Amino acid sequence: MMLRVWLVLSLCLALLACSSEQETSLVPAKLPQDLQPYPVSATPLPAELVWQTNDSDPEFADPRAVRGGTLRESVPSFPLTLRLVGPDSNGSFAGYMRALSMGLVDVHPNTLRPIPALATHWAFGADHKTVYFRLDPDARWSDGKPVTADDFVFTLEFMRSKHIVAPFYNDYYTTQLTDVIKYDDHTIAVVAGNPKPEDELLVEQVNIRPVPRHFHLLDEQWVRNYNWLPEPGTAAYRVSRVRKGKFVEFERIADWWANDKRYYRHRFNPDRIHVKVVRDNNVAWQYFEKGELDSFGLTLPDFWYNRAQGELFDKGYIHKIWFYNSVPQPAQALWLNMNSPPLDDRRVRVALAHALDFDKVIQTVLHGDYSRMETHNVGYGDYDNKGIKPRALDLPLAVRYLEEAGWTTLDSDGIRSRNGQRLALTVSYGRPEHTERLVILKEEAKKAGIDLQLQLLDSSAFTKKVLEKNHQIASLGWSGGGLSPEYWQFYHSDNANKPQTNNITNFADPAMDALVDQYRAELSKPVRVELAHRMEQMLFDSGAMIPTFKVPYTREAYWAWIKLPTGNATRTSSAVIDAMGNGLFWIDVEEKNRIRALRRRGEPLSAPVTIVDETWK
Hints:
By secondary structure, the protein is an alpha+beta fold. It is about 25% helix and about 20% strand. Helix 10 packs antiparallel against helix 12 and helix 16 runs antiparallel to helix 17.
């Protein structure tokens, strides 16, 4: 599973010089010319193919949904790029941009079975590596041009190009995806580098998203020229306005090609999504209370228990929901850069883990609502190594490891030193609301003689620092997903000691490389499970990451003009108010006007509304 994240020079310079009030042009200055179709395969389709589809799983959207209105959201920092790949493309805004494109198939959010997306049908080759697809002839790019087999063939050329400066994709589309074969304008085959079980092969390995061939001019200026040019997508929204440093706005494509498709109708209902930059979460809360933002995440206990109270809630203007989901857990951890002394010493890494009191954080700051994450990959069923328990607070053991590593001298502050160097470690993070929990960890670590120095950064600057491997300790979470854990991008030495890869611990061990390579090539699920267990154990033994917290739910507040579908959300919903993900809610514009009028008069809308949905707990 790829966790990862997807004009010309004069225009770039103009943007840098312009006022922040100016809007960015979304039109490329130059496009490829005279594109000739890719040739079709000289080998015909195998005669024995058994074509499959899924048109029988239940629809999960609500037919009561209506289109219209603008959803207003906020992000803490402006993105460093709108590209889908290349430098700085894997930041916190990447989820918005990736949601503008669809894959060949999707996954039903409740049954977890494959459903049609850009492909209507699929068939498996006998080699367990090749999947054949029939593309939906209705599919269109957001600029109106048809999606054809040539776009999928171009994907391979694009992702292998050095011009995109994306080593992960360069490797993945060479070793793990070896070919895209065109049989006609709407029939292709995608070939994986290794055999895989059918479900993982279809949903994860070959389920590529096309790249619009007519839009990209691949040359040495590509990264710079396309930094602020959002490529056409295939999903329901497209970027419509960008005011640099201020906001990005998306508009719904009125004649979107999938409007009436079985699994897409009644979804993606707002006409616009306006995402403004609000750098302080407390300020964002004030915007929300004024009705200038439509929803607000309440996963943080302080907001759920303390802030989401008062007249707006008592009079029913704003509702609250606690929705349990069933998805692989995001890998929340402290990620230790093993190339940054003294974290190059395993004894120091393990000592740090034993010096941190996560239980105290859970019981105090987090109100007991979170639980401890065990290891990197949790929530993948059989693949989970349930024998691993995270290292618990044990100050005597932490001290023993540190003294064995030579950190024996204590200064007047109780901080250890060795050869005149203090045991000071910098923890970088990008969310100010995490400060309180990190302060508790800092105070507890001091008891073992470790000085944790907290470094709060703007979220974009934080992401850039980590992907450039300039951090010492990074506090962050990698989003989970897929049917099985992913190891190559995080722990293979091919991705260590290189910028812009996800191996942020710089883990480089030939023994791990061998297991990762075997895991990627293995067809048997029981063998893959056993390999996953061994890799998780090796990761635990190394101390390269210190798991922190897991949260198997989402909590949100939303103005009552936001209407939820029957069932509120789906099994795999990471958020309830998720315009580009599940896209199930809608905005009642008349209700919005009524609520505003009631509020001006001080009259209630209803009794307080708090929903606790444990359907998927």
